[in-house]
Design brief:
alpha/beta, two-stranded antiparallel ribbon, 20% strand
Length: 261
Amino acid sequence: MKKNLLLLLIMTMVLTCPLAMSQTKRPVIGISCSWSETEASVLNTYLNSVMMAGGLPVIIPLTADSEILAAQLENVDALVMTGGEDFDPLTFGQEPAQGLAGVVPQRDQYDLTLIKAAAQGLPILAVCRGLQGVNIAFGGTLYQDIPSTYPAKYIKHRQTSPGKFGSHTITIEPDSELSKILGTQKTVVNSLHHQAIDKLAPGFKVTARATDGIIEAIEKMDGAAPILCVQFHPEGMTNGGDKEMLKIFQYIVNQANKTKK
Ligand code: MN
């Protein structure tokens, strides 16, 4: 009798196992890449953060072919736009300022195409350069170089300590998605940027600022899918063991689960 019960238990487990596996299948999170003539690459901090949050990261290779990019997006449930080089100011109708650093026009084109295509229905988490790209894609502009073009007194936004450490405070709007995710209206974030949003893209809401007024987060929650953008690097802190910043990746993975194919 005991043997029969054990057999029944094993058979039940075997039969229900494929169902359980499909229910727990990880949502696929597309990650934008950095690009050079010789390679497409993504920092492990992004890949690790997505995996820690329960997602399955895939790198989206750079191409100028928008049909291939659209096909790539058909296979993902959410998009993470990563950090990187300065955006070419010609993409937002300005000539280069003296403080502009190196630009990669191929990557600008790829980023802007990905953002516009994904905004048709995929949740987007945009980090640093990613936030700047979202702002440009929707009609905003940037300060090309905070030290030489920001009109007010500014704090240090290019920390010299490692990215896993926070370095400046941000104040978060109480009714924002970001404050719901983090459960706070004030926190300390890392800061590894010298560009920032100047004119905000129409349709977006500023949800966090540094103490000098620099925009640290924007979002658009009334579109086809949520677009959450941060000027700081939650992946650097998450990969360094920060459980608060992990919540941002858990959010995008949860959103991806809702759009999962
Ligand atoms: Mn900052």
